Recover the amino acids of this structure.
């Protein structure tokens, strides 16, 4: 729209000047030739460019475009144009200084002189001084509202005070000065005024300045802030599950005023979409329920309109699918934590209405992601189906059950499908890692559950500057070894990457020790006996990672005999030693590796005294008096005693002389003839070469 | 009640009294009881004839003990005074102002006006601006008297006499005395004059006359600032003011002594002649 003179103006042309009376504001303006020419062309059909062209031709004004802009801006600020002038964004706003700097003569610049048309009293009385303002109440208002304000100050002239609000979009009406007398010397001059600020819905928000103007001048300004329209109230409505015709359906309406609006909900009107009268719930706060009975099955649009105390409204509508009586029932649930790329399990439970005599003929499931619906066919009881969502998001899954009577029921749920998670990975190191020896790392990597991915690679870095190692696709724990050249603390990282390029990294710190000393141990054979060889077993080994070997093992026996060097050994090695006498001896084995590192192990060996010989005697079966009975004697020196059996003396228990069998080795027999029947004690006493003896006795029953 | 109707500048006014003697005195003793300037009695004073305003001049004090006179404009009390002369002055002041506001064919501008060589010199200004003093200086210089209160403009922009006696103040007080122009040795204008010169000025002790010329549009603005019926009907006031300022010249400045200013203006024949060539002085 092009500039148009305000319809509340009356213009008189005085030569090339203009005089404009604005009866809406009671102001009179004198326009110099430039301003007057622009003003005449503000006819709503002439563009600013055309006005500028006219000025160029008729008056020869340079920078005519800028002059026109400046003039229109001035006219608009005086509210002489029908609409605010739109900014011409292709060039900066012109100013008088800029135009003077561009060589435009001052006389060619627009000039507008204004007065407030006086009231009769003002026309003859000494003019009151310039008005002042001290307060403005209220000092704010919202767009689209009319604010009744009160201004206080001085020198406010009844009937001749203009209230001006800067900027556009605020119209001031009903200006009334109070506190003015009609008969005093200060006739018509008051100290307060009331006015209405009509704020256009499109007015710019923010601070404006308010001034008043009388014939005495213009006051200082006070601030008036225009805020956005108070927000609308909110309202939501939900219906009880599975509404059925002929049964009450419960609706829960939640209405609230806009935060900060200062309003309350005055009424909520509900229309049910079935031509029944609307229901007014009145002033509500928080959720409120109302019930409605739908007479017939069908789909109805229920609308709830909340109105706040500021007459602002909000409406919400929902579709209410009211089933015919006897429709099947249906529910659908989704497995927990559905993840994109992994199957989500839906459990659909459909059942025919009790007493309907029908069965569920089919359940059609739509998954809300554009994939084709799935028909589950005739189902009975809970039925599951799986669906794989390609991407994370919120999907509406709808299941429609149809029974054999063609009655249907539909239920829908929203499924929030999360993005697949990252894989997991962990890494552990073998115990006591030593420099120079291989350290074993165990890496366990696994894809995120439900991601549908596999581990594509595990890259291990050892923190010692050596190249990373890629383990490739792994499944379950995987080991890799690494040899650290030097002791130190190293950070080992394992990064697992799955087939979806998702990664996970685990890091540990490994403390690698320096190589240790060799190890050595010594054990003695059981029950060592003086005079008999005792076997000593020495096990020596270099320290792992030391790179050395056992060069020698020196053995000392603790009995003053010389030490024995076993030389280079590998693995367990035995040697024997004969202690001459019983006693407790300390046996020490010192292993020395090729790195001259040594280790010593000592044990105490308790050497026992040598044992007595052994002897036994047996008689032949069924000895009979008068017949020779055979006696078998077995005598042996004690193992380790080093002796031999020197003699075995045999007594028969019947008073006959003992018999010396002499030195025997192994079983020896002798015969004896008992004269009479009876029970006789036979004793055999063996004596070894160490004069140690042993006796054995048996009772022989002679028949 | 007794009633008479008057007409002034096209405004019909009713005057009602509760005393026939009082009404007779109004008609027959204009010296003691002056009617407002410009009032002309009309014969068809039917009580029901429409009037722009109806005044009531009632006898008897509000306290009921002392004789007094009360003046009402409609239902509004204008004056409650002890002397009939004071009541008449109050009535005149109120009525002149009301007529100035409602005159259908004239526009009243607060200004002093003199006639000079066939043109009007108009000096707009509020009370205490020194209009009467300046008018007096012009009269002493030989100008004819038109008004010290209103420039009464007709639809052609010509100035009509509103030649009531000058209201000359005593010293700096607001008290005035009415001085007939004849007492100043001057004559009163009888015919409407076109405006030749507009002097927008006010007295300030010691001020020098440093005139700045006003364009026609700004002269209109200066006259509008002192127009009684400025508000509400621009279709009436604007064309009249346009006609009034179309040919003359206008200057604005503070002034000092009124006589010196008049003498100065008379010496500057070139300016005045230029105005005359353009149809003004």
């Amino acid at each position: 729209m092009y500039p148009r003179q305000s319809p509340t103006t009356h213009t008189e042309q005085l030569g090339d000047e203009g005089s404009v009376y604005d009866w809406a504001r009671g102001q009179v303006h004198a326009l110099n030739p430039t301003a007057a020419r622009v003003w005449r062309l503000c006819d709503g059909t002439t563009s600013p460019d055309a006005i500028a062209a006219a000025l160029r031709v008729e008056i020869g004004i340079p920078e005519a475009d800028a002059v026109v802009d400046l003039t229109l801006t001035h006219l608009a600020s005086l509210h002489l144009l029908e609409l605010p002038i739109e900014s011409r964004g292709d060039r900066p706003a012109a100013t008088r200084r800029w135009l003077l700097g561009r060589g435009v003569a001052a006389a060619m610049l627009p000039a507008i002189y204004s007065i407030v048309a006086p009231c009769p009293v003002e026309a003859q009385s000494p003019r009151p001084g310039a008005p002042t303002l001290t307060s403005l109440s209220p000092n704010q208002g919202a767009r689209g509202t009319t604010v009744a304000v009160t201004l206080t100050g001085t020198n406010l002239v009844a009937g001749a005070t203009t209230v001006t609000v800067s900027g556009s979009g605020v119209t001031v009406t009903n200006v009334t000065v109070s506190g003015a007398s009609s008969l005093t010397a200060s006739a018509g001059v008051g100290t307060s005024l009331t006015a209405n600020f009509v704020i256009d819905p499109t007015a710019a928000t923010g601070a404006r300045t308010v001034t008043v103007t009388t014939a005495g001048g213009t006051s200082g300004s006070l601030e008036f802030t225009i805020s956005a329209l108070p927000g609308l109230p909110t309202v939501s409505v939900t219906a009880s599950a599975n509404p059925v015709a002929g049964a009450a359906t419960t609706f829960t309406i939640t209405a609230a005023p806009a935060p900060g609006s200062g309003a309350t909900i005055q009424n909520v009107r509900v229309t049910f979409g079935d031509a029944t009268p609307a229901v007014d719930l009145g002033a509500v706060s928080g959720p409120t329920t109302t019930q409605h009975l739908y007479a017939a099955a069908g789909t109805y649009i229920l609308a709830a309109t909340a109105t706040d105390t500021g007459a602002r409204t909000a409406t919400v509508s929902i579709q209410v699918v009211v089933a015919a009586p006897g429709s099947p029932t249906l529910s659908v649930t989704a497995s927990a934590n559905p993840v994109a790329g992994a199957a989500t399990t839906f459990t659909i439970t459909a059942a025919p209405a009790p007493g309907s005599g029908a069965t569920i003929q089919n359940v059609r499931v739509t998954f809300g992601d554009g994939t084709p619906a799935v028909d589950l066919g005739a189902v009975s009881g809970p039925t599951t189906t799986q669906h794989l969502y390609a991407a994370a998001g919120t999907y509406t899954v709808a299941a429609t059950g149809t029974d054999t009577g063609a009655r249907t029921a539909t239920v829908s749920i929203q499924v929030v499908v999360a993005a697949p998670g990252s894989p997991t990975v962990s890494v552990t190191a073998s115990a006591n890692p030593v420099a120079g020896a291989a350290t074993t790392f165990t890496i366990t990597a696994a894809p995120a559950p439900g991601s549908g991915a596999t581990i594509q690679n595990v890259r291990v870095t050892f923190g010692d500057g050596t190249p990373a190692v890629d383990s490739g696709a792994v499944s379950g724990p995987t080991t890799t070894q690494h040899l650290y050249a030097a002791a130190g603390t190293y950070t080992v990282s394992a990064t697992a990457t799955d087939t979806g390029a998702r990664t996970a990294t685990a890091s540990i710190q490994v403390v690698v020790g320096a190589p240790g000393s060799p190890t050595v141990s010594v054990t003695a054979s059981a029950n060592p006996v003086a005079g008999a060889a005792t076997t000593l077993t020495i096990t020596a080994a270099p320290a792992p990672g030391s790179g050395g070997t056992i060069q020698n093992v020196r053995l000392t026996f603790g009995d003053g005999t010389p030490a024995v060097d076993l030389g280079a050994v590998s693995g367990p090695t035995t040697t024997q030693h004969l202690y001459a006498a019983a006693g407790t001896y300390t046996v020490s084995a010192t292993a020395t590796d090729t790195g001259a590192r040594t280790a010593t192990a000592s044990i105490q060996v308790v050497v026992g005294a040598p044992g007595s010989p052994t002897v036994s005697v047996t008689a032949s079966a069924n000895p009979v008096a008068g017949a020779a009975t055979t006696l078998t004697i077995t005598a042996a020196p004690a193992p380790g005693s080093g002796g031999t059996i020197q003699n075995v003396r045999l007594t028969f228990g019947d008073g006959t002389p003992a018999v010396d069998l002499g030195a025997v080795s192994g079983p020896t027999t002798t015969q004896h003839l008992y004269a009479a029947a009876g029970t006789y004690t036979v004793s055999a006493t063996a004596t070894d070469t160490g004069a140690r003896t042993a006796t054995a006795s048996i009772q022989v029953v002679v028949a | 009640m007794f009633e008479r109707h008057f007409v002034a500048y096209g405004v019909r006014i009713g005057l009602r009294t509760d005393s026939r003697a009082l009404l007779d005195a109004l008609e027959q003793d204009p010296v003691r009881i002056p009617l407002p300037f410009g009032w002309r009695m009309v014969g068809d004073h039917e009580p029901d004839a429409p009037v722009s305003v109806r005044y009531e001049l009632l006898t008897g004090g509000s306290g009921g003990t002392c004789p007094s006179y009360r003046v009402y404009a409609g239902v509004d009390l204008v004056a409650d005074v002890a002397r009939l002369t004071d009541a008449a002055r109050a009535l005149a002041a109120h009525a002149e102002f009301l007529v100035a506001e409602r005159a259908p064919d004239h526009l009243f501008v607060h200004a002093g006006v003199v006639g000079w060589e066939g043109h009007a010199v108009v000096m707009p200004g509020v009370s205490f601006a020194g209009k009467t003093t300046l008018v007096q200086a012009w009269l002493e210089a030989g100008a004819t008297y038109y008004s010290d209160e209103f420039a009464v403009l007709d639809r052609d922009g010509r100035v009509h006499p509103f030649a009531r006696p000058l209201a000359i103040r005593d010293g700096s007080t607001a008290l005035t005395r009415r001085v007939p122009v004849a007492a100043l040795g001057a004559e009163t204008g009888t015919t409407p004059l076109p405006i030749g010169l507009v002097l927008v000025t006010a007295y300030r002790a010691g001020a020098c006359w440093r005139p700045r010329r006003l364009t026609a549009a700004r002269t209109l603005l200066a006259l509008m600032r002192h127009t009684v019926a400025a508000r509400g009907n621009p279709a009436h006031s604007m064309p009249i003011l346009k006609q009034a300022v179309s040919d003359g010249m206008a200057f604005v400045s503070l002034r000092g002594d009124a006589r010196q200013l008049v003498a100065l203006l008379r010496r500057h024949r070139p300016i005045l002649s230029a105005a005359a060539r353009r149809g003004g002085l």
